[in-house]
Amino acid sequence: MVKSRKCLGVEAMELIPKKELIAHFEGVRKRTLNYAREIPEELIDWRPGEDKFSIGDIIRHLGSAELMFLHAITEKEWKYPGHGLDKGRTKQEVLHYLQACHSAVMSGLHALEEEHLTAKVKNGLGYEISAWRLIMAMAEHEIHHRGQLSAYMQANQVNPPQIFGLRIEQIPQ
Ligand code: NI
Predict the structure, then answer these.
(1) Nearest alpha carbon to residue 139 among 50, 58, 66, 34
(2) Using alpha carbons only, what angle is made at residue 12 by residues 30 and 100, rounded to the nearest 5 degrees?
(3) CA 145 to ligand 1 centroid distance, Å
(4) pLDDT score recorded for residue 135
(5) 8 A C-beta contact, residue 59 and residue 111
(6) Cα of 83 to ligand 1 centre, how many Å?
């Protein structure tokens, strides 16, 4: 049976209620923080190349990206606040910025009505998608950068935490 894109969006919202989408992102963020907390202070400005993100840049970027995704959902406009040192310089400052962005975004997401989430928003490339997909995109974006943090840590002989608390060798074969 062929269904319109709108129908599919509404059905998906029924399958994944807003509170579950938010809870999923909260879980992703909790695990990102587990990584960020393990980063030694002296590595906060480490970057793998001159024109690459530093560890601090990635953490500031995750906070600013959250604000960007919420703004796109609520205002249907793409606007990125940047990830410069004005957002925080030390590990404590960048984590504080990340937390401040997260609190603002969680309040914003909780306040959304169902119709905000099924409304169409243009993505960065100009294609229309349902706004709720941006919450999933926000999670995917964060997971991408968390993997990057993990690689940065390993390049500096710092063991990143296990994502779900177990090593793959602990799972029965
Ligand atoms: Ni990014």
Answers:
(1) 66
(2) 30
(3) 7
(4) 94
(5) no
(6) 10
Helical ranges in 76-113 per DSSP H: 91-110
Give SS3 for 136.
Answer: helix
Name the CATH superfamily housing domain 5-163. Answer: dinb family like domain (1.20.120.450)
Q: How far is the CA of 84 from the centre of ligand 1 (A)?
A: 14
- Rounded to a whole number of angstroms, the distance between the first and last alpha carbons of the chain is 40
Distance of CA 132 from the midpoint of ligand 1 (Å): 19
pLDDT of residue 1: 42
Pick the closest to residue 145 from 86, 72, 83, 84 (CA basis).
83
pLDDT in tens, 47-106: 999 999 999 999 999 999 999 999 999 999 999 999 999 999 999 999 999 999 999 999
| Cα of 57 from ligand 1 centre, angstroms | 10
**Collapsed DSSP state (helix, strand, coil) of residue 128:** strand
Tell me how far the alpha carbon of residue 61 lies from the centroid of ligand 1, in angstroms: 7
pLDDT tens digit sequence for 106-121: 999 999 998 899 999 9
Enclosing H/E stretch for 43? none
From the CA of 26, how far away is ligand 1's center (Å)?
18
- Under 8 Å between Cβ of 74 and 80: no
Domain boundaries, given as residue ranges, for the chain: 5-163
pTM score, whole prediction: 0.89
